[in-house]
Amino acid sequence: MALTRFIVFEPPEGQRTKDAVFVRDAFSFWALLFTFLWLFRHGLWIAGLAALGLSVAITLLGEQGFELTAAVLQALLGILIALEGPSLRAARYRRRGWREVAAFQAGDLAEAELRYYGGRPGSGGPATPPALAAAPWTTERHKPAPARTGGFFDATGAR
What we know:
Elements: E1 4-10, E2 21-24, H1 29-33, H2 35-41, H3 45-63, H4 67-95, E3 99-106, H5 109-118, E4 149-150, E5 153-154
Antiparallel strand pairs: 1-2, 1-3, 4-5
Helix pairs in contact: 2-3, 3-4
């Protein structure tokens, strides 16, 4: 299962964590297929109107005899919105004063919610992550002596 980056935004008041919004920061297949409708659905009205205007202009270009160019431009517009749409959503929340409180990798929205709400005080989950044992590579251990010759040249300095 591929992991996806999620960005968590909380409202400006900050008291209600159940109103947090999870933005999936990845390629959006639905934004590729339904460019301006996807933007309208997420409340990005100005970007949606701009995409609709570009889509109409590209269609008119196709009617003038540039069908291949219009098809390529329409596909490129869909790819652009599919790649940058989640960033536009995140920028919208930042403009409205929402606080970006977390960003992490998760498999899907349900896992992202578990990771986020599981470590919150009062949620029943652990308030702080448990302490990890010392990693084996951080403990001091005996290091082997360097080899008499290492690599291309002799270790004693003679060339």
